[in-house]
Amino acid sequence: MTLEEYLRWEERRPWRYEFVGGYAYALAGATGGHNLVAGNVHYELRTAARSHPCRIYQEGMKLRVGDDVYYPDVMVVCDPGGDDEQMAHAPCLLVEVLSPSTTRTDRTQKLAAYRSIASLRAYLIVSREHRHVERHWRDGTGAWHVEDLLDRGEIPLPCPGAGAVLTLDAIYRDIAFPAPRRIRRVKEGAAAGTG
User: Fold this and answer.
1) Listed residue (177, 179, 170, 76) closest to 127, CA to CA
2) Tens digits of per-residue pLDDT, 124-154?
3) Which phi and psi angles does 29 have, rounded to 5°?
């Protein structure tokens, strides 16, 4: 279908759908942990934006990238003409919180699509399973870089204001992590069929 057909079609649906390459893809419901992590990021960015004209959206706002449409978990738009009532067009920061069903898409397809947005300065891929943020950012020459933050650290943000940072402590405030999986040990002889 065309973008215009998708927009009319989705308007009448009870669920949200992303639109990529002419096809609509239903979005699965998020877990409580996913929502808490995204909510922490949204809260920190809204707090940082209080003295700035940027708008901070959480998961319900569409993002147009060419003729495709996504629903980022958190999005910062500082360009006054960068959005309308239906969707944003010019974000400076995007955040996706990983879930088992979205990890591959967030790290490949969305990474490539998001990097094509001229206004975008950073894309954060946030783990729900452990304290890990993958930060993709564009420098002053337009070149993209990547950095992994594990357990602790501060993430410099290009917006909503000069000097804005997001800490891993703030992202993971009040978050309980899944218990690590136990690995069952097998005797060498039994594993080799001799025991």
Assistant:
1) 177
2) 999 988 999 999 999 999 999 999 999 999 9
3) -65, 145
pLDDT over threshold 90, residue 189? no
- Rounded CA gap, 177 and 7, in Å? 37
Query: What is the edge-to-edge ordering of all strands in the sheet holding 17-20?
Result: 23-26, 17-20, 68-70, 62-65, 87-88
Q: Token pair of 18, please?
A: 């992303």
Distance CA 166, CA 44 (A): 7
Asked if omega into 160 is within 30° of 0 (cis), the reply is yes
Q: What is the residue whose two structure tokens read 């069952």?
A: 184
91 and 119 Cβ atoms separated by less than 8 Å: yes
Q: Does pTM top 0.85 for this prediction?
A: yes
The C-alpha atoms of residue 15 and residue 81 are separated, in whole angstroms, by: 27
Question: Cα(127)–Cα(5) distance, rounded to whole angstroms?
Answer: 34
Close Cβ partners of 168 (under 8 Å, ≥ 6 residues apart)? 131, 133, 149, 151, 152, 153, 154, 155
What value does the mean pLDDT take over residues 93-117?
92
